[in-house]
Design goal:
The protein is of the alpha+beta class. The chain has helices at residues 29-36, 114-123, 125-151, 154-168, 191-198, 202-214, 231-239; strands at residues 7-10, 40-44, 49-51, 58-63, 66-71, 77-83, 88-89, 100-103, 107-112, 175-177, 182-186, 219-220, 225-228. The radius of gyration is 18 Å and the shape is globular.
Length: 240
């Protein structure tokens, strides 16, 4: 069940920070006005549950990072994904969520009730088409992640994850200036969680972070905050 510690107010599409990037960007002004009737702005503090296995939550992520986990039969949990603005949360037409969603950082969502959102999909084919495109993009990303876990070295895995976060950093309120090839961001996960997500031990993640620092690929401001002085160098390492 989703946490009762979240704060919810009516959504305002005219001031939405992901208005032109999220799935609703395909809607006309009249269609968006109709869509806005079911939208609610939710604020969830870091560490709080957004959706458990039995919940269905549909939402555009406006700010922050969401961690998706899968619970195994023996009770263990595996991180299976990270979502950033303007990603869409939710499994359409499902009776329950296949994943456990948690706010890895403070998160802001534009959330929609299940029945109301599915009505909008039927009413506006462009919205359904955009959601289908998003689903295919997520499938491509999942296949890339399979390649990372199956073929890349520990150093390449850590570099790949840091690169992904750096590339999404502008959408989570972090500094990223492509024209000068620079990024600064805070890791949305603990190093133990990074290891879980990458299929590595905590010790291996820490060792690879230290190696990247010694090589000048990254600078560690503290345990969470990272500076990438040369994104091209990080990308080259992640792709090697």
């Amino acid at each position: 069940m989703a946490s009762d510690m979240s704060f919810e107010v009516p959504a305002k599409c005219d001031v939405c920070v992901v208005r032109h990037k999220a799935i609703c960007s395909v809607l006309s002004e009249a269609e968006l006005k109709d869509f806005n009737h079911i939208a609610r702005h939710r604020s969830i503090p870091a560490g709080q549950v957004i959706a458990a296995d039995t919940d269905i939550v549909f939402a555009n992520i406006l700010n922050g990072v969401v961690k998706l986990t899968k619970t195994l039969a023996d009770g263990r949990q595996q991180i299976v994904g990270l979502q950033f603005p303007p990603d869409f949360m939710g499994r359409i037409y499902a009776k329950e969520s296949p994943y456990f969603a948690e706010a890895a950082t403070d998160v802001e969502l534009c959330a929609f009730p299940k029945d109301g959102f599915e009505v909008m999909l039927r009413r506006y084919p462009g919205l359904e088409h955009r959601l289908f495109e998003n689903t295919l993009d997520e499938l491509d990303s999942a296949r890339e992640w399979m390649l990372l876990l199956g073929r890349k070295t520990a150093k390449e895995r850590v570099a790949s994850l840091l690169l992904m976060i750096a590339q999404r950093a502008p959408n989570i309120g972090c500094a990223h200036t492509p024209e000068i090839n620079f990024s600064r961001f805070s890791l949305p996960l603990t190093r133990a969680d990074l290891g879980d997500y990458l299929g590595l031990t905590l010790e291996t993640v820490s060792r690879q972070m230290t190696n990247l620092k010694k090589a000048g690929i990254i600078e560690l401001v503290d345990n969470r905050e990272i500076i990438v002085p040369d994104l091209a160098a990080l990308e080259q390492l992640a792709s090697s």
